[in-house]
Amino acid sequence: MLRLIELFNSVQGEGSHAGLPCSFVRLATCNLRCVYCDTPYSFGDGEPQDVKSIVERVVAFGSRHVCVTGGEPMLQREGCIALMQGLIESGHTVLLETSGAVSLEGVPDEVVRIMDVKTPDGLGLSESSTKFTRIHFDYENLERLRSHDEVKFVLMGRRDYEWARSFVAEHRIAERVKHVLFSPSFHDLPARDLVSWILEDGLPVRLNLQTHKYIWGPDVQGV
Ligand code: SF4
User: Fold this and answer.
1) Are strands 65-69 and 93-98 parallel, antiparallel or unpaired?
2) Helix (H, G, I), strand (E, B), or coil: what is residue 13?
3) Ligand 1 pocket: which residues have CB below 6 Å?
4) Which of 1, 81, 120, 193 is the most buried (most CB within 10 A)?
């Protein structure tokens, strides 16, 4: 049994699958509290749903891609893994949106992990604080990345940019995954500033814009 917040069909708004028809399964609860969070309604308990009925509803939507997101979906490890397996078996390309702050052990190899690594300003914490080090990321997940995966950073400003740039270099992220995504926090960092920094530094990263916010507006739910 899973605790579900919402289930809808739309187009993928970000990452390398942006623009493709995609169903979304948003699971309940999150262990983090990002400053820019646009889905605080996912922090609640959600509605109990079994894996089979979720898979049937996704199949009925008819999209080839499905994104399992949250909240933090891997907090419901057992059910989430069963759901992803069921979606693979029903012929879907499965994307998993996760912060990587919870272990990804057991995620099926076929799943495309989109790991949204949390930055100090994104969590409203100092880089040197023990709380940031303790909660922001499970470093063992670096070894669980596959070459088809994506690693994303949502950046609040220049300080976050420099932190992410160091993280990418130190952990050889561009060598581990297919895409490294740098995303400006919608209300905090103008995209043009981020573009100029990426070009100045010649970084091997892709600018990532949340296109769903441009299509439907920044605060619309369930699209
Ligand atoms: S990890 Fe995602 S759902 Fe959780 S607080 Fe951060 S942005 Fe919100």
Assistant:
1) parallel
2) coil
3) 30, 32-34, 37, 39, 42, 70-72, 99
4) 81
**Tokens at 25, concatenated:** 């399964």
Under DSSP, the state recorded for 44 is S
Domains of the chain listed by start with CATH number: 2-216 (3.20.20.70)
Phi, psi of 28 (to 5 degrees): -85, 155
Nearest CA to ligand 1 atom 3: 71
In the chain, % of residues over pLDDT 90: 94
Give the pLDDT confidence of 78-136 residue by residue, as tens digits: 999 999 999 999 999 999 999 999 999 999 999 999 999 999 999 999 999 999 999 99
**C-beta of residue 71 within 8 angstroms of C-beta of residue 5:** yes
Q: How many CB atoms lie within 10 A of CB 214?
A: 11
